[in-house]
Amino acid sequence: MTSPNPRSKLLPARGNKADLEFWIEDILEGEMVYAYDEDQYYQKEGEFLVPVGATKVQGALADTALQDAPDDQKQYGRSGGTWVEIDTTDTGAVGAGTTGQFPYYGADGQVLSTAGSAITLDTNNGQVNIDKIGVNEFNLSGDFNIDNINLNGTGPARIDSGSDIILAPTTDIDVTNSKIRNLADPLLDQDAATRAFVYAVVAEAVGQYPAYEYTFDPTLGSYWFVKGPGIVSTGAIDPELILYKGMRYVFKVINNDNAEHRLFIKNTAVSGTNDQFDDAGTWVTGDPYTTQFFEVPFQNIGLQLFYVSDVSSSYAGALLIRPDEIS
C-alpha cells in the first residue's frame, strides 16, 4: 500500500500537563495539545484544557463511556479525565478491583463507582446490591415498578411528602406484628384511629348512660350486705360483682350513721387504707363513708379487684372486670 500523498505532519504543542496549563494563555482557542506525562491529548476551551479522544495507545477512540480498543480488544471507561481498563475476566471489576464490584457510569461517561464502592454485583443471585443511595432530588415522569423492596437497618426509614402517600396493594398489607404509631385523629369514615381515640369516644358514649348503683350495708353482720344489678332482689352477702370496662358505677354505703366503715376499692382484700386501686382519685371519686363513683378504665387494670372495709377484711367481696380481652 502506498503512503498517503500529499502528506504533512500535524505536530501539536507538547509538554507535561502542568506546564501546558501554566502557558495556557499562549495556546489558541480550540488548539489541541499533547501531555507527555498523561499520554493524553487536550483541547483548549476557554481557560481550561479538556481531554479529547483517547490515549496514544488506544488510538482515536471517541470520548464515550465504554468502547473496545482497536489494538488489544479490551474495554475502557473514563475516570477522572483518563481511561481506566475494565477487567472483563473478573466479575465486572475496574482494573484490579475487588470481586463483586463493577463500574457504574454517569451520563457524561465518568466512572462513578469503582472497586470498593457501595454498588456491588451479586453474581450468585444475579442482582445489583446498593448499600447507600444519596438523592437530593428524584423526578420521575412515568411509572416506577418494583417487585420487591427489602429495607434493612437499625434506624427509621423516613418518607417525607408534600401530599398524601397512597398505598394501593392488590392484597393485604402485612406489618409482621409491628405497630403503626403517631396517627393523627381520624377525620374521614375510612381513616385509621388510635387506641386512645377509640377509648375516648367509647367513654364519652358510656358516660351518657345511667350509672349502675349498688348499696352496701355493714350492720347486719361481719360482712357487706349488697343489693344492686345482677343480685337477687333480697340482696346477698359479700357477692362477686361483675363490672365492665368503660362503665360507671355508684357504690353507696347505707346505715353507716356512726361512720364506722369506709368502703375502699383495692387490689387485695386487706383491711386498712393500704393497696387502694386508685389513691389519686382519678377513677374512684366521692366519699368512702357514704357514696363513691367508680368509672372502670379501659386500660389493663387486671381481671379482679376487691371492695373492702377499712375496719375488717371479713367485709370484702370480689370485683370481676370484663371483658377480659381488652387490655
Question: Concise description?
Answer:
The protein is mainly beta and 327 residues long. It has helices at 17-22, 195-206; strands spanning 13-15, 32-35, 40-45, 48-52, 67-68, 75-79, 82-86, 104-105, 111-113, 119-122, 127-130, 212-217, 225-227, 236-237, 241-244, 248-253, 263-266, 284-286, 291-295, 304-309, 316-322. The protein is rod-shaped, with a radius of gyration of 42 Å.
Features:
327 residues; Immunoglobulin-like; 6-stranded mixed beta sheet; YefM-like fold; mainly beta; rod-shaped
Structure characterization notes:
With 327 residues, this protein is mainly beta. Among the domains are: 8-52, YefM-like fold (3-Layer(aba) Sandwich); 66-129, no CATH class; 212-322, Immunoglobulin-like, CATH 2.60.40. 6% of the residues lie in helices and 27% in strands. The protein is built from 2 helices and 21 strands. The protein has helices spanning 17-22, 195-206, and strands at residues 13-15, 32-35, 40-45, 48-52, 67-68, 75-79, 82-86, 104-105, 111-113, 119-122, 127-130, 212-217, 225-227, 236-237, 241-244, 248-253, 263-266, 284-286, 291-295, 304-309, 316-322. The strands form 6 sheets. Strands 14-13-12-16-19-18 form a 6-stranded mixed beta sheet, with no helix packed on it. Strands 1-2-3-4 form a 4-stranded mixed beta sheet. The model is unreliable at 56-70, 90-102 and 105-112 (pLDDT under 50).
Sheet with most strands = 6 strands, mixed
CATH topology of one domain, by name, is: Immunoglobulin-like
CATH superfamily descriptor of one domain: Cupredoxins -  blue copper proteins
- Fraction of residues in β-strands: 25-35%
Overall mean pLDDT stands at 77
SSE class: mainly beta
Question: Which percent bin holds the helix content?
Answer: under 10%
Number of strands: 21
Shape: rod-shaped
- Our count of helices gives 2
Spatial ordering of strands, largest sheet: 14-13-12-16-19-18
Our measurement of the CA-to-CA distance between the termini, rounded to an integer number of angstroms, reads 96 Å
- Sketch the topology as an H/E string, one letter per element: EHEEEEEEEEEEHEEEEEEEEEE
Unreliable residue runs: 56-70, 90-102, 105-112
User: What's the gyration radius in Å?
Assistant: 42 Å
CATH architecture of one domain: Sandwich
